[in-house]
Write a structure and sequence with these properties.
Number of strands: 13
Distance between the termini: 54 Å
Strand content: 15-25%
Number of helices: 12
Oligomer: single chain
Shape: elongated
Helix content: 40-55%
């Protein structure tokens, strides 16, 4: 029994208690398939079937071993879960967010200010990540993610917040700006500052430049947009970064919006079971209010485009 985890036991208990996978799934805020998978995994650990059901039937039957296990768990499991709930409720609420460094550095602070005004007792933990966000949410390491990638994973549902364009930025001393379509040719032989391997914006930039016969070998790679931009400010090279990274105060930089590239989408995602969480819903709404129409174009315009 050392391999059994509480999630499998709790799902089986609710299935046995309610007599169906669907009712247990609603109780636990899981999908029907997840509830069924939990029971099947527990059966593998137990090495015997616990639940039987006829094809198409809505109700399940417990096998003799299933009945014995349910009787063993009831009512001790409910008492244990109630005690755990009290322990959890006594702890400070935490919301764990994963997102690219650029979005955290440039866009998230005003959103967090509004969020903290509504929920002063909630600690927000931000993990600056671009890759592996879906897996971190699925493993329980993150509650929410903002990402430029669409995962296509039903366990991590995402909604489109909006889109933004990328810009070429380079030191003003380099001379007049190229036309957006001429950027690949303009970049040839110039030092490129970009993101670490695997990051979404690095892949987009290298693909755009290399297809046009331009620079495709980075001179410097950095972890996020603030670091990339700092290198450009010091005259170490040019970069392709989100348009909203550059402000009117950046007088030593030239910015060219690359409107020949498709806009980059930004998605809000969360663990499936967190979809109705009050903190998650409030953060989602604040992202929509603060970002759409400023840093991001609206989702409707993006979908039409």
């Amino acid at each position: 029994m050392a391999e059994v985890n509480l999630t499998l036991i709790q799902t089986f208990y609710q299935v046995a208690r309610h007599g169906s996978f669907s009712a247990a799934a609603r109780e636990l805020n899981l999908s029907y398939q997840s509830a069924a998978n939990h029971v099947r995994r527990l059966e593998q650990v137990m090495r015997e079937p616990l639940v039987e059901s006829d094809q198409g039937a809505k109700k399940i039957r417990l096998t003799p071993r299933g009945i014995a296990l349910y009787n063993l768990l009831h009512p001790e499991l409910e008492i244990m879960l109630e005690r755990l709930s009290l322990v959890v409720a006594s702890q400070r609420a935490v919301l764990r967010i994963g997102l690219p460094q650029a979005i955290f550095y440039y866009l998230l602070p005003p959103i967090l200010k509004q969020f903290q005004a509504k929920f002063p007792g909630v600690e927000v933990i931000a993990y600056e990540r671009d890759t592996a966000l879906a897996e971190l949410v699925k493993s329980g390491s993150l509650d929410v993610c903002l990402s430029e990638r669409f995962f296509g994973d039903p366990v991590v549902p995402q909604s489109l917040l909006g889109t933004y364009h990328l810009s070429l930025v380079y030191p003003k001393s380099w001379g007049p700006p190229p036309a957006p379509a001429d950027i690949p040719a303009w970049s040839r032989g110039r030092p490129l500052i970009t993101y670490e391997p695997g990051q979404t914006l690095r892949n987009i930039a290298l693909d755009f430049l290399s297809k046009g016969g331009g620079q495709s070998e980075p001179a410097i790679s950095a972890s996020g947009s603030s670091s990339v931009q700092k290198c450009v400010e010091k005259g170490l090279g040019f970069a392709i970064i989100p348009t909203w990274c550059v402000t009117p105060e950046d007088l030593d930089l030239v910015q060219v919006t690359i409107n020949v590239l498709p806009p980059v989408a930004v998605y809000f995602g969360q663990a499936l079971f967190m979809a109705k969480n009050a903190y998650v819903q409030a953060l989602h709404e604040q992202c929509r209010i603060s970002l759409v129409g400023t840093a991001l174009e609206g989702a409707d315009r993006a979908l039409i485009a």
